[in-house]
Amino acid sequence: MNELIILDKTIKKVSPDIFKAVEKEVLYFQNEFVGSDDLILQDDIFRVLEDIEDLSIIMFPVEDEEFCGFLFEYRGENFIYINTFLPLEKQIFTAAHELYHYLVNGKKEFLDLETINEDKELDLEESKANLFAALLLVPKDALNKQLNLLKIKKSADLNILKIIKLMDIFAVPFKTIILRLFEIELLTEKETKDWLEIAARNPEKGILYQIKKHKIGERWQKRTKHVKLSNLKALIIDNDEMELLPEEKINKDLSFLARVDVDE
């Protein structure tokens, strides 16, 4: 992948005005639903989503590295599905990404790994959703505080160990941290490109190797395979009782749910 293309697709480069607009959207959400504009959410993002009155979370594992999640509506209720086969850091980012789509227009939307990595032609709404997720999970003030604690005043102060510490603090993927450092202008374009050339998911070298070597942030690399079906089963049964869906479709849905171990 051409890492320079990733930079060219970031909202910060495409349109500073849009960047500021998304920042305002994040600030509004933080004040309304989080209670602070510098709180580090990590996996509390799931709790935040569950606290939204007309939104529920569906979680179960699908063994597909590229399939992250989607937003959908069922019988007037909104759901965000998250693939828990993926590392927890990507589940967290997926939740924040889909939250943007729900807040903006509630449209049905499927998220794959290419979208998270911005590894395709520019899609402005998807890029805005990625930016929203990054700003929400890595707030500027909180990031600056952590940089001060790690004694990072300039780009030359960075090293892989400090990067994986930042990943652990904010529970986000490698590319997210690097792009946030670019967005706050700690890194130049060239420096960002150089960092992004480091392998992120190779257990034999690069970032994942360093995470395992130093035992920092390993919890966010765990494939939780958590299952949570919220009230979806109840809705399907209600459909059965009210004869709103064909019997064949209802039986198929209930058969699928019966094969899944549900966490009560």
Brief descriptors of the model:
2 domains, four-stranded mixed beta sheet, 14 helices
Outline the structure in words:
- The chain is an alpha+beta fold and 264 residues long.
- It has two domains: 3-221, no CATH class; 231-264, no CATH class.
- 54% of the residues lie in helices and 9% in strands.
- The protein contains 14 helices and four strands.
- It has helices at 3-8, 11-14, 16-34, 44-50, 88-104, 113-117, 124-137, 140-149, 160-170, 174-183, 189-196, 206-214, 232-242, 247-258, and strands at 55-60, 67-74, 77-83, 109-112.
- It has a four-stranded mixed sheet with strand order 1-3-2-4.
- A hairpin with a 2-residue loop joins strand 2 (67-74) and strand 3 (77-83).
- Helix 3 (16-34) packs across helix 7, helix 5 packs across helix 7 (124-137) and helix 13 runs antiparallel to helix 14 (247-258).
- The longest helix is centred in the N-terminal third of the chain and has 19 residues, at 16-34.
- The radius of gyration is 19 Å and the shape is globular.
- Residues 107-111 and 242-247 have low confidence and may be disordered.
